[in-house]
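## retry 2 of 3
previous attempt timed out at serialization; input unchanged, resubmitting
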Amino acid sequence: MHDNLKRRMQTGKPIRILSLDGGGMRGIIPATFLEALEHLSGQSIPDLFDVVVGTSTGAILSAGLTVAGEDGKAKYNATDFVKLYQGMGTTIFHKDKCLLEILEGITRPSYDPSGYEHLLDDYFADAKLSDALCEVAVPSIELEHMRMHIFSRNRAAGDEKHDFYIKDIIRAATAAPAYFPAKKLSNVAGQACGTFVDAGVSSNNPGVMALAEAKALVGDCQCIFVSLGTGTISEPISSLQAKKWGDVEWISHIFDLQGDAQSSYTEEAVITFLEHNKDNMYHRFQIDLHTMPYKLDDTKAEHIENLRQAAKAMVKQQAQPIKALTDILMDEEVL
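## retry succeeded, writing output
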């Protein structure tokens, strides 16, 4: 258990949990929300939260924001990741021009990951999961045994065989099928540990995983649970449409459809689990993007700016509850 979490447990303070949805380039939405929290508090995300869990693009934020710099403090802030989404989308989602576009995503992944992997190396170098500044968990699906795997700082700190480089965890956690090739991983000791893909195909909203991780760490205790979405965009699908769809049509819709459906159920489940303690708090921040149905790999600058402005509008509209939440996270308001 991280020392900061131990101190909170010893003083009887509630455990602060952050859950971050997947959503590709729409990750600029939760990044904008976290930017507001940092500005209001003057603190970094690992100072404001004790347990951080993220799926897919949420893994970029959860793992990336908890990496330590040379001074022992957070190396990056949320604004750094807003800028990443604004400026590096075409590096992440880079097409191999020698391939026929009609075959991309059908006979092989749509994107060449080499530029993305160089970007991750530039940002995170040899940063290890075990050195994260708070408890972090990142889900990814391991293919050989067809199981969900959780990369956990707590496990990594206890045994080197569970420790991985942050850049490799993020690459594995964002290997969305049909978009990127699966990622073969080795731990920091060089031992091969399997082949992994994005967990967003089954757990785009990792709220239940975040609760499970917190419970494994501290058992039953009071908690403040903050869940950040990347926008709901799925449009209704008529039965007439669905009857006519084949592989190509379903591939283009399945991530958004499954993501929205799973997220809505997870939200209900988390609320139900938290109800046993009247002092628990749950905050879910989400925005409706039906007027901006951008795909997770949409890197157009105009569209990214539209997402950014929609997120800023939500933050402005929710200014009062966000300020109240920030005070609670900073322990400046008694629950």
